[in-house]
Amino acid sequence: MYNHAPQEYKCPICLAIEGIESEDTMMKQDDIFYRDDLVMAVINSKFVGNNPGHAIVVPLKHYENLYELPEKEANQIMKVAKEVAIAMKEVRKSDGVMIQQNNEPASGQHAFHYHMHIFPRFEEDHFGENRSNVRVANPKEREPFSSAMKEYFSKRKV
Ligand SMILES: [Zn+2]
Question: Which of the four CATH numbers 3.40.50.150, 3.30.428.10, 3.30.70.100, 3.40.1190.20 does domain 29-154 have?
């Protein structure tokens, strides 16, 4: 519903879900730190300002946006997001946690597969001013963040 993915869209998130690493997706399998029957959680390939290593939670089935996301997936995404938020507090020692979820290009959606961003927030991180300060992080830079989250989730059931 209200779709914007071009014809023949090679969904980068679906490729990662299928276990594929290629030039069509920035995601690496090492970025994935949680997976169940419905959703997975990943360290985002792009780092924002002073808030590197934020996470996204995605449904395993392809839905472009919130408008078409079934309740079953939506509920599980929120359950996992809550656990990721607590992990940001415990693992990252963040002062707060922020969730952002964009639908359609007008709102800043770039990857046309539903994804919920979960940012660790810190006092004086100047997130608003740095929101456009986005860069693709090297997989090696992402690895410590995904490892820490894997460690956290290895001890918990969502
Ligand atoms: Zn997809």
Answer: 3.30.428.10
Q: Token pair of 87, please?
A: 């992990």
Q: What is the pLDDT of residues 96-148, one digit of tens each?
A: 999 999 999 999 999 999 999 999 999 999 999 998 999 999 999 999 999 99
Distance 133 CA to ligand 1 centre (A): 25
* Ligand 1 centre distance from Cα of residue 51 (Å): 25
Ligand 1 centroid–CA 94 distance in Å is 30
33 closest CA partner among 41, 25, 24: 41
Distance 29 CA to ligand 1 centre (A): 15
pTM, rounded to two decimals? 0.96
Whether 138 and 52 have beta carbons less than 8 Å apart is answered as no
